[in-house]
Amino acid sequence: MELSIREIGYGDQSINKKMKVYLNLFHAIVSDIHFWHQLNRSEKLKKLSSFLEDFKEIDVLVDYFDDFAKNLEKKTLNFFLKSVINS
Prior knowledge:
The protein has helices spanning 2-8, 12-32, 41-51, 58-74, 77-86. The longest helix is centred in the N-terminal third of the chain and has 21 residues, at 12-32. 76% of the residues lie in helices and 0% in strands. It folds into 2 domains: 1-32; 35-87, no CATH class. It has 5 helices and no strands.
């Protein structure tokens, strides 16, 4: 994350402040979409829109996250750990 912030152009003094802002935003998003599967489509659109004000394709993101959640439900934790252990 630090490298990404540096690439944007922030200097040494503002990196920690920006990292704190980004991490707080990340945790807010995770907290807000924790019960994603219980939300209807309009609630999902509203939640993502609150974080991505200028983003035009919120519908595409909702579909993406729905498909991602379905994909995760089909796989066990061992499926993901195997590739890490074998590397």
